[in-house]
Amino acid sequence: MKQSTDRKHYSQACEENRAPIEAVLRECFAAPGALLEIGSGTGQHAAYFAPVFKHLRWQPTDLAQNLPSIRAWCDEAAVPNLLEPRALDVGQNDWGMPQVDYVYSANTLHIMPWSAVEACFAGIGRVLRAGGLFGYYGPFNYAGRYTSESNARFDAWLKARDPDSGVRDFEAVDALAQTAGLQLQRDHTMPANNRLVCWRKTRWR
């Protein structure tokens, strides 16, 4: 659950999942480069990971209304490789972003409508350099089935709030990735019935 104090928002989930995510990202995001974070949310991940991954130029992004919280977390982190947060609507045809070596996103696909998920992967295909990696953290269904009762309950809660949202089928998401020129590299089991999936950009669309 997110809490707020003025501009700076807080998510307990971000605090709980950051260490397991860091362990996987150390393997996937090992070489220096530029990273685009899609859907930075509260800004906690950006503020935590940028000081850890000093070899990455970390670009946080989100919808414009979420930038004040992200900026507050970034200002507190005060590290030179954490860039000024930028507004990004994944549904736009032109993201106005330079090409990057890495893309990272956490817990975004299940809160977007499917049309936005499609647009997100198309955009990643445009901005990710050949050989670059996209790392995504969140829940998935496999073969149309929930991986846990908690994910089934979470999916029902999401759909009650917004019928266009919901836990995504991995196979459908991987098909979008392939269309964007991305090839599956690793699918990591994570705590709390989540996954961290890494795709590599292997070809131009």
Automatic annotation (TrEMBL):
GO biological process, any: methylation
InterPro entries found in the cross-reference section: DUF938, SAM-dependent_MTases_sf
Pfam family, one: DUF938
Gene Ontology MF, one: methyltransferase activity
Keywords for this protein: Methyltransferase, Transferase
Transferase among keywords: yes
Entry protein name: Methylase
Organism: Acidihalobacter ferrooxydans
Highest classification ranks of the organism: Bacteria, Pseudomonadati, Pseudomonadota, Gammaproteobacteria, Chromatiales
